[in-house]
Amino acid sequence: MSTPKKPDKDPEKDKDEKKEPADPKPTQKKTSAAKKKGKSRVPEFVTCGLPKPDEGPSTSSASPRRPLMGKYKPRVSSPPRRPPPPPAPFTPSSSSSPEKQPIDYPAIEDLPLPPIPDKPASPLSLPDQRRRYEKPPVEKGGDNDSSSPGEACALPPEQYKQIAEKARRSRQKRDSTRSHARGKDEGSTSSPDLPKRKPEKEEKPKSRRSRDTRGRREAIRATMMRKRKEMEHALAETLTGLGCFDPYSNATASNYIIRRSTGIVYDSEITKHRCEWDERHPEEPQRVTTIMHKCYERGLLDKCVRISNFLRTDLYDRILTKHSAEHYEKLKTLCQTSNLSTLEREAAQYNSIYFNRFTFDAACRSLSSVLNLVLAIGKHEVMNGMAIVRPPGHHAMYNEFNGYCFFNNVAIAAEASIKDGLSKRVLIVDIDVHHGQGTQQMFYDRKDVLYFSVHRYEHGCFWPNLPHGNFNYIGKGEGLGYNINVPLNATNLRDDDYLAIVFSLLLPVAYEFNPDLVILSAGYDAVMGCPEGKMQVTPGFYSHLVALLHGLARGKMAVVLEGGYFIPTLTEAACLTLKTLLGGPCPALDPIRGVHPTVIETIRNVRRTLYGKWNCFSICEFVVPKAGVAKDENDIYKIQYFGVPEKAPFLTRNCYPENSIPEHNYYVRMNKALRERYRASLTLPFTYIYDEKMLKHKPQKGDVERPEKPDRLTTILETFKDFGVDKRLVRTKIVKRDWANYSPHIPRYMAAINAALLQTTDLYVNEHTNEAVDTAVCGILTILDGVMTGTTRGGVALIRPPGHHAEANTPLGFCFVNNIGVAATYLSIKYNMQRILIVDFDIQHGNGTQNMFYSNPHVLYISIHRDEKVGEDNIFYPTCPHSFKNDGHGAGRGLNINIPFKRDVMGDTEYISAFQNIVLPAAYAFAPQVVLVSAGFGAGIYEEKSGGYNVNPETFGHLILMLKPLAEGRVILILEGGFNVITTSLCMTICTKALLGDPIIMPKNVYKTFSESAIRTIRSVMDHLKKHFNIFHINTKLPHTAVVVKKVDIFTEETYSKTLTRTLDPDKVDDNAYVENEMRILNSSNH
Predict the structure, then answer these.
(1) What is the pLDDT of residues 150-177, one digit of tens each?
(2) Within 13 Å, how many C-alpha atoms sit on residue 394's CB side?
(3) Structure confidence at residue 1053 as a pLDDT band (50, 70, 90)
(4) Is residue 722 within 8 Å of 255, Cβ to Cβ?
(5) Do the beta carbons of residue 568 and residue 529 sit within 8 Å?
């Protein structure tokens, strides 16, 4: 068993001792065996199929090599390099050498993406846009590369050699002809080894005028080429400065971003660390062994990639980035003591700490495991992963052991990822029930690390009893606003309270921060049954948290075990976390019934403190008191700290809470009952349906051009093939059936749809329309049968004509049968589904779907659409009422939610904010059993015919990612509108990739700009929904004035006559030293 050593060595040691190799930088790739033999190991993807430098076609030495003309311009091969000398033979050393580290080869799908072409795309040219994602673009390189920016060369080696050989022969023939014309015999041109041409002075002299003309011509040509390049570069810079870039760049780059493997790291040596003087201590080895055993039983470990758990040779240097050298030496020295009395006496000097002779080794191995996982994620060896480690780390401070923690695993790993150039912005989400004061202190003045902690606080009366866990500690200097504490001042809080925090605080800030790495400090001591937390969070919540964070950082997430001390629920929560990392469905949660009043107050206080520092909180309404004086409780927010920090010596035995036997048995039964909900399969496939019969529905001969045309489906299928999505889905054959009994339309409605139907600007028919409509409906029902019988998890319906405008008795807007209306009715009647969610994000309101379920208590309809009015009349299609006040009727009151955006051009920020603040809270309060998505993309970019909004394809993918945790993953996408075939095809493809679990690129500049009209709409909808859903009561007006509250131990009659609050200066409220001083002055006063 080796331990990390300092880099400096004793000079008296044997000089022949083998020096330990330094840990390579993560950004440098190790040399392969092939390269040691003198061969360059370059993936074929990098060379685009071109021959290697030493394998290029031979060229004549008689004439200089000229670039090929026309479309194909291969790279100029560099001269062959001299092979390196053979490596020295390996000589085994008697000294102990560190374990061999794994060679890090780049995965093909993880190679850097090509730059965006300089020339912006035209949204109206279908062939040019389609060419962007037909072949992977390749970044041009080399000083001799004469091709223009944005061009790609991706030829197979055989084709390249043929073209190069043909060009070589053409040059030789041309040179031979010119030589013959000059009367010079330069030898046979058929020989591959031609002699060098004679010097120019030996040639027949030319006239001075001829030489001058030729020189001027060459100078003019060179000048023109130089000017052309300068103009191209200047134009590219100008367009980039104006924001003119390829609008589909993120969407097309998604072709190369797919879901990768999940890593797991565990070291059995960490189980030797235990409290030897207290066998009942809660931080015990069984915490990790039980997790690993349960994950193995459920087949989760077999689906993971095992990350090497070797003890890192650079561990000492990594530790010194966040701890002092004395801190390291102190732990190392203490663990060399075997006397238990001495160890316990030393442990009493630290809060909640114990030692044994294996503690130092376990702490080093735990830290090494976390580092190995985080760096493997940063190097794209795995997409995400979980570290099952102990001792935990988030309480460890710069020079102090604390709270079972010795080295701060998460902080050191985050720092390593940034210093090694693997990350620029790291999000640390700490959900342990205890505040991670150690992690907070280490990044308190940094803006490249966002620390977000949800913890039990009780105004400072809960461990660690420090004021630093309060909501007003938000960082300092550059890090102001990048430290977010969400203190919980009550116990027995549930999923409802934690989900409200996620929707209103975590997701908006995380999307605006846009990290490139997420580290989850996964403390499971807030889960039900844990005696330290006294909370009632179910194990399933952690699965939903991981799934909702999956949209960040392209899925790069490291989950690091921290606390959690009730073994049954700890194990269940950890297994569900790993299952979700693997892409498994989230379990069903109970509907959100309400949020605890103290949590509502905390959310309000956090929003108020961060207001103006994060644009995502612009949706909050700010209260300005009259005459600048706070007059009631709604105008103030209180900063309260009533705790007393503990001091040494600390207790070392029986210093932790425990469950009584009845409590223990109750939570064991609860966990067993909940486990029945968590049995959803991890391996169910996704399906899609398509039939060429739907292409036959087209305008009649001589009719005007219609935007709803067959190209919409064929282009989506082509994009599916280009992105490889079709091979990852199961195509299901459409089963024809009689669906009249499940139709929400009037009787014999289909008989009225025939070729004699009146043609209008938004409706056309031909002799195949009936067959296309019937095929579309039957296809959707086929998908539903597979999902409800458990053979598939979800599906995609590539259908036309669309359906959400069709009324019960009238076809409208290219829609004949309301496809999604038939699907919801089918689920309700045949499968007795009681809660069906329909989400419609087409820019045009789904009037037909709304009217069909307006009074239905089993269907929640949510629509995000454009709404324009002149007076009381709607002027944007459709013209039926669809404001937020149209919220349902009778038993369906409150189950019809309209989010009507106004005239402003809405984009990614507005749609993501509407989802996080309205759609997700309402959906989780409804707790659907199935989710149907009316996937209309009329709000997408370059959809001028639909409405002129500017939502990018990747944004629609993020909307699907946020819906995916619902209904155990039973999500069905049903194509509706969207008439720019390129935008629609990319949007549908990326939504499908999101359904498959692929990481989705974050849209550019989310929350950087926010439409004032959208802010007003979101506020109005949230306020209106308060009377229907209790969760929307978290949206309160933000107070203006901050006060500190006096600490009172015993209330008496005299207490009420004293001053209990002190008003703070609004300009200094972010200064923690000022607030602490004002609090001391107030507590020391007797008035």
Answers:
(1) 333 444 556 656 666 766 776 666 666 5
(2) 27
(3) low
(4) yes
(5) yes
Supply the DSSP string of 1020-1049, one letter for each residue.
HHHHHHTTT-GGGGG--PBPSEEEEE---S
> What pLDDT is attached to residue 418?
97
The strand pair at 1041-1045 and 636-639 is best described as: parallel
How many angstroms separate the CA atoms of 1085 and 1081, rounded?
6
| DSSP element (H, E) containing 1075 | helix 1072-1084
In the structure, what pLDDT confidence band is assigned to residue 762 with cuts at 50, 70 and 90? confident
More confident position, 948 or 297: 297
The two tokens of residue 348 are 């009493």
Cα–Cα dist 1035/140, whole Å: 52
677/589 Cα distance (integer angstroms)? 9
Distances in Å between the Cα of 446 and the Cα atoms of 317, 318, 415 are 21, 18, 11
DSSP strand pairing (873-874 vs 869-870): antiparallel
Buried b (16+ CB within 10 A) or exposed e, 135-167: ebbbebeeeeeeeeebebbebeeeebbebbeeb
Banded model confidence at residue 1021, pLDDT cuts 50, 70, 90: very high
Q: Which long-range contacts (CB under 8 A, 24 or more apart) does 1075-1084 make?
A: 1075/472, 1075/639, 1075/1044, 1076/467, 1078/1044, 1079/639, 1079/641, 1079/1044, 1082/1044, 1082/1046, 1083/1046, 1083/1047
Decide the pairing of beta strands 869-870 and 686-689: unpaired
Of 779, 754, 758, residue with least CA distance to 693: 779
Q: What is residue 749's predicted lDDT score, i.e. its pLDDT?
A: 86
Closest CA relative to residue 636, chosen from 1068, 1063, 1072, 1082: 1063
Query: β-pairing, 730-731 with 686-689?
Result: parallel
Number of alpha carbons in the 13 Å side-chain half-sphere of residue 539:
30
Mean pLDDT of the chain: 82
Dihedral angle computed from the Cα positions of residues 748, 754, 759 and 764, in that order, rounded to the nearest 10 degrees: 100
Catalytic residue, chosen from 805, 845, 882, 1040, is 805
Q: Which residue in this structure is represented by tokens 């780059």?
A: 253
Tokens of 1066: 């609004």
7 confidence band (pLDDT: 50, 70, 90): very low
805 is a catalytic site residue: yes
- The residues that bridge with 520 in the sheet, in sequence order, are 429, 559
Contact of 431 with 526, CB cutoff 8 Å:
yes
pLDDT computed for residue 546 by the predictor = 98
Indicate the pLDDT class of residue 1005, thresholds 50, 70 and 90.
Answer: confident
Residue 453 has pLDDT above 60, yes or no: yes
Distance between CA atoms of 535 and 702, rounded to whole angstroms?
69
233 labelled catalytic: no
CB 120 within 8 A of CB 245: yes
CA distance 752 to 231: 62
pLDDT in the model for residue 877: 82
Chain position carrying tokens 């709304």: 850
For 732, the token pair is 């299901």
Q: Where would I find the H helices in 801-869?
A: 819-830, 847-852
Three-state secondary structure along 81-115?
CCCCCCCCCCCCCCCCCCCCCCCCCCCHHHCCCCC
Reported pTM = 0.79
Give percent of the chain with pLDDT exceeding 90: 65
Question: 341-350: long-range contacts at Cβ-Cβ below 8 A with a sequence spacing of 24 or more?
Answer: 343/276, 343/277, 344/277, 344/652, 347/650, 347/652, 348/648, 348/649, 348/650, 348/651, 348/652, 349/648, 349/649, 349/650, 350/400, 350/401, 350/402, 350/648, 350/650
How many whole angstroms separate alpha carbon 360 and alpha carbon 336? Answer: 9
Measured in degrees and rounded to the nearest 5, phi and psi for residue 359 equal -65, -45
Catalytic residue among 323, 327, 395, 1040: 395
With tokens 């500017």, the residue in question is: 950
| Residue-level pLDDT at 460 | 95
Q: Flag whether pLDDT at 239 surpasses 60.
A: no
